[in-house]
């Protein structure tokens, strides 16, 4: 399922918790990420209710403690966010984005370059 608007930074933190731990209560999410970042239980609850309204998570209401679960997986969400970023910042050019990432911020390690070369090889073979 493609989400029209990428998750915010705080929504992404919650999604990462749900991807790592599976369906979870608001209390579990709060104890893992809310308390340490100074957010109240009600703030986490409201955020997760908004995420449910936006279609980022589902809420199972059959028991007293509602369970929230991410609608899409980590890989699909990352791909959607990357596509959105590439379109907005690099006018859809993957090569410009990759060149910028490899050349400007920090030099790629030998391992990273080897991994990139392997990916390019695989992409060519798929054609």
TrEMBL record:
Matching Gene3D superfamilies: Penicillinase repressor domain (1.10.4040.10), Winged helix-like DNA-binding domain superfamily/Winged helix DNA-binding domain (1.10.10.10)
Any one GO molecular-function label of the UniProt entry: DNA binding
Entries under Pfam families matching the protein: Penicillinase_R
Hydrolase keyword on record: no
InterPro entries: BlaI_family (IPR005650), WH-like_DNA-bd_sf (IPR036388), WH_DNA-bd_sf (IPR036390)
GO biological process: negative regulation of DNA-templated transcription
Transcription is among the record's keywords: yes
UniProt keyword terms in alphabetical order: DNA-binding, Transcription, Transcription regulation
The family this protein is said to belong to: Belongs to the BlaI transcriptional regulatory family.
The name this protein goes by in its record: BlaI/MecI/CopY family transcriptional regulator
Species of the source: Natronospira elongata
Taxonomic lineage of the native organism: Bacteria, Pseudomonadati, Pseudomonadota, Gammaproteobacteria, Natronospirales
